[in-house]
Amino acid sequence: MALDPLGGISVAIDSVPQGQGHQTVVAQVVGEVFGLPAAAIRVDTELDTGKDAWSIAAGNYSSRFAGAVVGAVHLAALRLRGKVARVAAAQLNIGPDQVRFAGGKVFAAANPDNAIAFARLAGTSHWSPERLADPDAAALRETVFWTPLGLDPPSPTGEINSSAAYGFIFDFCGVEIDRDTGEVHFDKYVTMHDAGRILNPALFDGQVLGGFAHGVGAALYEELVYGEDGGFLSGSFADYSVPSACEIPQPVILHRETASPVTPLGAKGVGEGNAMSTPACIANAVADALGATDLSLPLTPQRVAAWLRDPTRLPRESGC
Fold it and tell me: Is the same domain home to 314 and 204?
């Protein structure tokens, strides 16, 4: 994390996103620490393992971003803010513990009029570091590595814990099944998540919805089909069914925030949202409606209708 000469902040992280909004969350967290708008924070997510600082524990997997990466970002921001506070304290004639940051300004807690622009302080560190009361406090950059307890090297048998904290999901699904067509219709889908502190509600729900869409596809549509000769029969979207927005119901998303005692910000991470819980939840709902114990995914209308019309099976009257 580096302080720019004109008052912006540049942040380089070792986690490359695939559309989860890393830049948005990092800019938000850093901006809150320094009292700056997110637009003043530049976030670099490009990573060259040949020259950039990284480790095998870095990366974007096992819900590491919210807990580990953003946690390290927050720690770096606090350290850099501490340096800026020392520079400001000397100019405002107050103690560093009395310095506050908000609205692009740095000011005294007891007298907000005793203030200086954040950009001015940034310029001081860059242009005149030798004039600082404490030259060692030049607020230029910070690098932070963060490793929590529990993330130990692999055991002698190769076992390893890849996550510092784990989120929790509870799903409920109500379905109706058309006796004639075998189609599965959703009455209601409720999903509750405890991923610790929610850093950005919109991005959080976006991951839940994305994972839910994948889960619906796995449960009801998507299937790799091979012919008797081993030929791949579903190698294009003309033959491989993928649900569109029209086929995805709107789930009710609930939240419970139980802060992790392990990560700096209390975040656990939402990971892939409902990608793993939704197929199991839908399958169990359909199995309960049919009174079945031997269903296999995807539950396509053809497969469900064949099950319903099998004379050896007796579907439960109240279920369909």
Answer: yes
Selection from 36, 39, 41, 58 nearest residue 49 by Cα: 58
Can you tell me whether residue 95 is helix, strand or coil? coil
Domain assignment of residue 230, yes or no = yes
Predicted pLDDT of residue 57: 73
Beta bridge partners of 42: 10
Domain match, 190 and 102 both: no
Residue 96's alpha-carbon distances to 34, 92, 120, 206, in angstroms, are: 14, 10, 17, 40
Tens of pLDDT, residue by residue over 187-234, are 999 999 999 999 999 999 999 999 999 999 999 999 999 999 999 999
Is the Cβ–Cβ distance between 176 and 187 less than 8 Å?
Answer: yes
Give the CATH number, domain containing residue 304: 3.30.365.10
Is 155 among the domain residues? no
Q: Are residues 187 and 315 in the same domain?
A: yes
In angstroms, the CA 52 to CA 288 distance is: 52
Q: Tell me what percent of the residues of the chain surpass a pLDDT of 70.
A: 96
Q: What is the pTM of this model?
A: 0.86
